[in-house]
Each structure stands twice: as C-alpha cells, then as structure tokens.
C-alpha cells in the first residue's frame, strides 16, 4: 500500500476540520433556538402572572357603598374598599358620640355593598331587622328619644317629617309605635315601611 503523501494528509485534516465546524455550528444554532423558546416561555409566564396580579388588584380595589347612621358624627352614605369592616365605617363617618354603645356592635364584621350600619345609644334597645332582600345591621330607632338625624335614616322620613315627629312627641309622647300615624304625613303605607325599624322604649 502506497504511503499517504503530506498533501493528502492536509486535505483529510481540512475535511475533518470543516465537518467539526459544521457540527459545532449546528449545535450552537440548536442551543440558541432552545434559549429563544425558553425566553418566550418565561415571557408568557410573566404575562400570565401580571394578568393574575391585575385581577387581584381589581378585586382588592373594588369599592362598596355603606349607609351608617345612629350615634356617629357624620351619618350618611360612605364609600369604602371592599375589604372594609364596621370599624372602618365608624372611622370614615368621623367617629362616634360619647353616648354611643359600641359594645352592641361587632366592629370586626366585614361589610357588604348596600349594607346599613346603625350605632345605638347606651341603654337603647336594639335588634337586627330583616326587610325584603336586605339585612339591616343594627337596631330599632326609639321614636320618643331619637335625634333628628336618626329619624332621617328611616325610609321616607326627611328633615321636615323628622321635625314633625319631634314636635308631636314634645306635646304627647308616643305610647305605641302605631301612634306615629297620628303625625301628619305618615299613613298606613309609610308606617308599614318603618314599623319594624322603630320602637318606643
């Protein structure tokens, strides 16, 4: 067998180098593709996480409206975040008066949209009242002792009607809740709306 010349050895070596470079190039290209796929997957995961975070933030930032009345300094409709509790409603309304009976109120209770929170006086008789499809949190209003702002929280009772109720009881105390119908402007229909919300002692 003839000996391989130096020239032939160089040709073989060159071919092997070309083959090696080719395979190295293919391997690097594959790694780049895998890296690109990995980056795409990471981007998709980040997008999904951001979408979930946005949904959670939307839920957290949701607002509710609550009606707070009774012995608070600024009764009325207030706007709160959806994770608020009764104590938050009390603070948002300016706090309570000294005669407020907070022992009868669950300050830790979570609030719902359209909820009514009533803060009673000390020694005032209270109870929870269900009307229609809503649950009114708090107690009945004593029509013999309630202040004007408290009377105005009753359905259909505005400032003028509240004045009439106060004027009537100054002349003649209510002996039963039905007696409120003797106040001009309060008929059977209005009485039916408020009878479960009022008391006389």
Automatic annotation (TrEMBL):
NCBIfam families: competence protein ComEA helix-hairpin-helix repeat region. SUPFAM superfamilies: RuvA domain 2-like. SMART domains: HhH1 (SM00278). It comes from the Bacteria. Residues 149-168, 178-197 form the Helix-hairpin-helix DNA-binding motif class domain. This is Competence protein ComEA. It comes from Peptoniphilus stercorisuis. InterPro entries: Competence_ComEA_HhH, Endo/Exo/Phosphatase_dom_1, Hlx-hairpin-Hlx_DNA-bd_motif, RuvA_2-like, Soluble_ligand-bd. It holds the Pfam family HHH_3.
């Amino acid at each position: 067998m003839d000996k391989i010349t130096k020239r032939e050895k160089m040709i073989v070596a060159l071919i092997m180098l070309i083959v090696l470079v080719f395979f190295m190039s293919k391997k690097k290209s594959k790694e780049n593709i895998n890296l690109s796929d990995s980056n795409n997957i990471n981007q998709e995961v980040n997008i999904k996480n951001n979408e979930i975070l946005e949904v959670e933030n939307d839920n957290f930032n949701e607002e509710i409206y609550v009606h707070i009345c009774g012995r608070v300094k600024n009764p009325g409709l207030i706007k709160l975040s959806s994770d608020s509790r009764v104590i938050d409603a009390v603070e948002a309304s300016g706090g309570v008066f000294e005669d407020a009976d907070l022992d009868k109120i669950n300050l830790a209770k979570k609030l719902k949209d359209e909820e009514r929170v009533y803060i009673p006086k000390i020694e005032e008789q209270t109870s929870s009242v269900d009307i229609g499809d809503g649950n009114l949190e708090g107690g009945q209003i004593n029509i013999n002792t309630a202040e004007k702002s408290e009377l105005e929280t009753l359905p259909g009772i505005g400032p003028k009607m509240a004045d009439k109720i106060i004027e009537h009881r100054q002349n003649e105390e209510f002996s039963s809740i039905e007696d409120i119908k003797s106040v001009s402007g309060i008929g059977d229909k209005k009485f039916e709306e408020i009878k479960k919300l009022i008391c006389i002692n």
